[in-house]
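INFO  loader      accepted 1 record
INFO  loader      residues=367
INFO  predictor   begin
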Amino acid sequence: MKTFKSLLVIFLSIHFGNAQNINPKEVKDVMKKVADWQMDHINDSYNNKKPHHPLHWTNAALYVGMSKWAEMADDDTYYNWLKGIGNQNNWQLHERKYHADDHAVGRMYAALYRKYEQEEMLEPTKEQFSFLMHHPAKTKLDWATPYHQDRWNWCDALFMSPPVWADLYSITGEQKYLDFMFEEYKATTEYLFDKKENLYYRDERFKDKFDKGTKIFWGRGNGWVYAGLADILSNLKPQTKEYEYFLDIYKKMSEKLIEIQTPKGHWAMSLLGQEFYPTPETSGSSFFIYGLTWGINNEILKGRNYKKAVVNGWNAMASYVDENGMLGYVQPIGAAPGNASADKTEVYGTGAFLSAGSEIYKMVNDN
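INFO  predictor   done
INFO  writer      dumping tokens
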């Protein structure tokens, strides 16, 4: 009898994974706590720098997660907060016409348009992207080229701009948005994707560099790529050439990510060098959890290993939220592996955490 009970426990563990270790109510509670803390501290200066402009990419990443939380929340407080930011800025993108960072706030505009269907929310973005399609940047992707960031020649750019193009394609049904994005995304991937490791270099400068004998793949940069892939795929029609292209990258990265996840549940700041970077980093790790859980929820990623990875990851991320709702261990603005600590946060870390929570909640609430 004892043997039968033991076998039953093993079977249930394998069949259902570890999702039962996460309580749906607790997921919503910690998400609300983090969202409310961040709204109260939106004008703080992080890491001894001035408060971010409302349309800055840092805040844009926050709005991505906040939009997902607003959809889950039990009142319109969060939607109203996001709408207020859009109205105050006349639904404009940020300052630089070509720079991907300054397109990222378009993610929020698209999310709000889907809820309210108010044309003014998307018109400035559509107008600017029309200009870009008619006057595309011709610069090379080399880092030393003048105006090199007029194209997506750093990996985190693939989170900032391409999903906005995918949103416009999905919302309008106009193929031109997808065509432009698809060609530019392929150019970046051919330039920065390591086909052996199935990870992206942050930019050209890291291709031939090594850190203590390991290739340098920045955790947060790859986290942003991976989350962006999930959002792009959400906007595409299955079985199309574009969907299959992005799905192939997504699956390759997914396999790599569960292979290199640390025993504590996070991912190292230098993804292949966890022994040299033991400190957690919650912004990149949260986006990995978001992307992996999205794949589970959409029945793309199957098997116990994926569910185990996201459960361990989410439990780790939630443990880094302090009693007030501040998410710690967020690496400051940078472009390479660095430092993080329990008392350091940033708005984009909150956005990543809320994105992860939105998919975790769907996973555990459906069980």
